Structure prediction request, 283 residues.
Amino acid sequence: MGVVNVTPDSFSDGGRSFAPEAAVAHGLALFEQGADIVDVGGESTRPGAVRPPAEEELRRVLPVVRELAAAGGIVSVDTMRAEVAARALDAGARLVNDVSGGLADPAMLPLMARADTPYVLMHWRGHAAGMQANADYGDVVSDVVDELRLRIEAALRAGIPPHCLIVDPGLGFAKEPGHNWELLGRLREVAALGRPVLLGASRKSFLGRLLADPATGEPRPAPLRDAATTAVSVLAAAQGIWCLRVHDVASTCDAVRVTARWGVEADTSARAQLRRRHCSPCP
Ligand code: PMM
Prediction:
């Protein structure tokens, strides 16, 4: 899954795709590089970010979703708002990536029950403005898995078919670096929820901290974290993670192909799995 952030303030790509034409061109390039899915988002979720109004989010994402879907690719919309998800689905999106796991907007789960479309439930403990204050865990992996299980149950109660549900441990969302590493080291416990797992480690600050300049202690800047992201992609693919959400699609595609050829259980085609597990029973 390649990332297109149609935001002026994303930490990872600094607003490079803020203009719709630039965002569309970037999304097409990601498909060209091998992305099975392109994820279009209009709200920055970096720690401390202020939410745009819904109208602004719609203005950012809809033209980009429409054009990328018209070009024939599988487009995902990264939104916590049911209204944005509904309009994006009408514009051709085929997957909804909700970083709040249905918690931010009470209309989201009922919408997804009607839509019968793949839906990513991410582990979430509050909006970006204050989320790092919620990075308080006993055992982070058990806590995240328990909280994700509650979200799966809520989604099923709302009528979302089980085959549409994908889970994500939400690296960097109300997590300190050590929490992210613990989750990565124990991904199999997340996979044991029995749903496909999506992982978003790309360029995140825990990688920047790991790679900090030894002289100054300054974290490695976001655009220089792609090799580390690729390493995460290899290790995650080797554990059968269903989908990797990344900025540098080309290097992750290569990494996943090497992992698969090595003989571990990676599946190089998220598209095939998406069809098999989700899209074929969904309209
Ligand atoms: N991370 C970001 C945004 N959306 N969606 C999912 N499912 N998982 C993530 O980890 C995730 C996400 C923030 O990163 P960005 O600014 O690079 O988009």
User: Anything to note?
Assistant: The domain at 2-279 is CATH 3.20.20.20 (TIM Barrel). Confidence is low (pLDDT under 50) at residues 266-271, 274-283.
